[in-house]
Each structure stands twice: as structure tokens, then as C-alpha cells.
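Why this split exists: single-chain examples teach little about how molecules sit against one another. For that reason, every record in the complexes split bundles all components of an assembly together and asks for one structure covering all of them. Below is a record exactly as it appears in the raw files.
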Amino acid sequence: MRAMAGGNVPLRRPTAKGDLSKMDNNVIVSLQNIVVDFDGQNILNGLSLDLHDKEFVTFLGPSGCGKTTTLRVIGGFVEPKSGSVFFDGKDITGLPPYKRQVNTVFQKYALFPHLNVFENVAFGLRLKKEDERVIRSKVLEMLEVVGLKGFERRNIATLSGGQQQRVAIARGLVNQPRVLLLDEPLGALDLKLRKEMQLELKRLQREMDITFLYVTHDQEEALTMSDTVVVMKDGLIQQIGSPEDIYNEPQNAFVADFIGESNILDGLMLRDFRVEFAGNEFTCVDKGFARNQPVQVVVRPEDIKVVPAIQGQLTGMVNEVIFKGVHFEMHVEQGGHEWIIHSTQASQPGEVIGMCIGPDEIHIMARTEE
Amino acid sequence: MVQKKSLAAPYLVWMAAFIIAPLIIVVYFALTDSAGNFTLDNLMTIGRYSTVFARSLILAAVATAICLVLAFPVGYFLSRLRTSKQHIMQMLVMLPMWMNFLLRTYAWMSLLEKNGIINRILGLVGLGPFEMINTSGAVVLGMVYNYLPYMILPLYTAMTKIDQSVVEAAQDLGAGMGKILTRVLIPLSVPGIATGITMVFVPAVSTFIISRMLGGGSNLLIGDLIELQFLGNSYNYNLGSAMSLVLMVIVLLCMSFTSSFDEEDMEGVV
């Protein structure tokens, strides 16, 4: 097995061997039981994760959840206290960054201030001692891909934030890495530019046909760009799935709350397809829970239909109406719970309205201890 | 603007009285003989002392080079520490400077002497005694010891401006330690290197205390030579002024050389 050729890897081999045989060919990066401590503080608590080749994967979570640390473990900048990192089937846990086939786009770009645009992008190729003509053609081609044709001689400090970001991306991609790591690369850009760059990054990933591992705390960004979203909290993975899965089928209250706005209520699963919450019984599409099992119910704000009070499954009083551009956000008091409803029709504060929730719009999760 | 200019007036007066005027006096004496007649003889005779000039330049250059090599890793190490630790370490670097210069150099005399501390310790294990004092090596040692902080501090200041992520980016792109040094750290430290070289080389090339105390009579430097013309037996302040003038030109050339590096780098940044 060629994958075992990384012979200078100590100790962890026996367990690795077992895991390797289970790995499917498509996996490019595999993290196994990664533990990272900083000053005795646990950042990653035994994180295990397989990442598939040629995917756009986003690590999403609040600050301090360990998403950047995960990226730095893959890049080789943080050595885990225990656990293994596999790249294309080889254990690269102890390998320094300069020997890894990944490149990173850093949060603050980290461009070389003493080099111009061309030399920044050429940096990796020059270290590989590529032929000058090859370097020239590759760099120019990459600058064209990121839309910086004609900027070769420009100084880094004369570029705008968005342009610097493009240089940083070109500098990584020109080395043709198997995996590009991006650590909140759009964080410093304004909203409009950020939206443009999101689409552009997605296009680049498809064109280059490589894996992008992307760290962000912006859930909308994650949903827009990703093939797979990894939701993290406190150094643990909360859920892995497609953006649709993560949004429509959150596995726990944290994910439901973090990905978009949610109404989360305690409920009781009466029997299959029948759930009780907010003082009423509803038909739902979930089954397989025990009879009368306590559950949590998630209803997205845009999935609640506002109807006249007598027609509603629930009735509540409007506390507040906020105009949000495309829709109105309403806070509705019902049975001691404040619901959030998104609707294109505004009701008046103080008005009593009815609410209808269809079976498809009710998402049921086993209740987690918080 | 006029008001701001007037704020500099006290210094302008100071400069005229204590910098410009003495300079004119030095130039005057350098170009006259003891009777006050114009002559170039003083400058011509300096050729006789070319070995002393060469020695001064070489020893100062060697000391500067050693300082640079020693200070570079220290500066980098300091710049990567946490801010609170940086302050403590910075103080430790400057600590020797709080002690009197003469005292420090005297201390080296007693360390390096024939029956000084180092030779006595070596004697215990059957080595030596070595001839350490009154050598050019001792002079270089004295220069390095006294001027090292002036190299460390500008390097450290320049390096604090190098973001750690830039170093990581170089690593990420395939640079090992050697390449990080030559492709990133050294180019980005050029302003600090230029300042450090100036701050060490200039006092080292004109010192006379260090060479007299640690170099004995055989390692005369320009500084000693000039001192002799004013305070020694040969008492010839016309020649002394000419020597000072030549030294000043050398220093000026050295400074314009290093500052040209500095400017090049600034062009790169702006």
C-alpha cells in the first residue's frame, strides 16, 4: 500500500493503519482525535473529521470555537498535543508547514511588503527553483485569473484591501496546492466587496478543481459558498452537512440558533407524526421518537404563516415590528414565548394575530442538555 | 508655519554656537599651520598614518559585523516575545549601558590581564596563560561589548514591525529557516540593520578609550592619534584637526552609504 510509505512517522502508526483501510479514496484530509491545548486551555477536544477532495468546505462557528485552530493544524502551524493528521492517506502530523502540499490565505493577507505583486505571487515558485520563463507565465496567468492583470509591478501598499486579497489568493493558488486553506479571508472587506469575492472564490474553486477549506463566522457566507459546512462549538463538531441540511435539519439547538434565526421551543413527541408544543398539537413529518419523548422543536421565522386570529393554530399579540428591507420582522408574544416571524406583510404592534405552521415546517430534535 | 519655526530657535542658536562654529574652527585649523598661514601640509602628512586609519576602519568593521551577527537573532527573538516580556528583556539589554563606560572597560582589563580572572581560572585546569590584553582582539571585544545594545535595539524595533503571519506565509509557501531569513527577515530588517551599523561603526571607528585600555600601545586607533595631537607630547592641533576632518569625511561616507539602503527600503514601503 503506497499510502504507508511515509515511513518516518513515529508511534501512531498502528492505529493509523486500521483507520486507513476504512478511508475511502475520496478523502484528502483526515483529522483523527485531534487535541490542542493553549496554556492549559482546551481548544480542540478530540476532533475527528474526513474532508473530501475537490469540495468547498466551510468551518463555521462563533469566535473561540476552534475553527481557525483546526485550519492551522492542517496547515502545520499548530502541532496537536495528540491525534493525527492525514493528507492523501499519509500521516503528516509532525511535518513542518513548508513540506506540506497545502497553501494558506491568511486572515490579514500577510503579503510580503518588500516585494511587488509579481514577486509576491512568484515567491513559492522561486523557492521551488522553477525556470524563470515558467514562473513568468504561471504568475501572469494566475494574476489574470484573479483579475489583476497589469498589476505586476505595483507595490503591495498601493493596493486596496480587495486587491491585496486577490494577490494573497493568487500567491497560494499559483503553487497548485491540492488544498487551499482560507482563514476568514473576507473579514476585512466591506459588504458589497465581500459578496463579490464570495462568488469569485466559489468560481475559482470550481475552475481550479481543488479543495478549499474556508473558515468563517458568517453563516450566510458559509451557506452561499460551501458544498459542505462543518459547524463547530467549543472545539467540537456540532454538525457536518450540506448547507441545505444544516439549515433545514439542524441536529441541535446550537446549530439551529447559529444558522439563521429560529424559534426553538420545548415540546413533547406524542407519537409518530404528532407533536405538542406551545400549548397545541401539530402534525409533523418526523417519526422514530419514543412515545411522549421530550423534544425540541425548531420553526424558522419565515415558515410561520400569519392569518386572522380565529384561523390560527396559535394566537399571539404583536409586540414589535421591524422593517428589514425584504421582509418585516415581528416579535409576537404567545403563551409566555416570544416568537420571531418574518413576513412580507406588516401587522400593527398590539394587534392579535393567528399563526399557522405546516407539517413540513416543523423540525424536531432530541432534547439536548444545556 | 512661522510660529512653528520659531519654536526651533533655541536649538538653532545652540547648533550655531556648539556645532557649526566648532566645525568651522576645525576646518580652519586643519588648513593652517601654527603661524596661521594657509597650508595643505596637515592633510598631506596624514598619509603617514594610513596604517592607523586602516586599522581603525578594519577593527571597527569587524566589531560592527560581529555585533550584527550577534544582535540579529536576539532582535528577532525579542520581537517575537509577548509585549510584557519584551519590556523586561529590552531593559536587560540596556542594563549594561547604565553603568559607566570607563568602569565597564576597566572590568574587561582585569578580566583579560595576564594574571587576570580568566587566565587564573584557565590556569587551574592547566591551560594558559594566554596573551589576551593588548591585542587587537581585545579591542574588538571591547567595542562589541560596549556597542552591542546599539545594534540590538534598532534591529529589534525594525523586527517588531514584521508580522508573524508574514513569516508563516513564507513557511507556507515552502521556505525553510534559511530561506525565511534571506528572503523575508533580512530584507524587512534593512532599516534596522542600516541604523545599527551606523550606531556601532561610527563610535567604534573614533573610539580612543577602548583601544588605549585594552589595546596597549601597539593598537593605536585614529581616536588615540587625534588625542595625542591635542593632549599628548606631539601637541599639534593643526594636524589633529586635519585628522578629525578626514575621520568626519569617512564617517559621513559610511552614513550616506547605509542611509541609501534605508531610503531604498522606504521607497519600497511608501
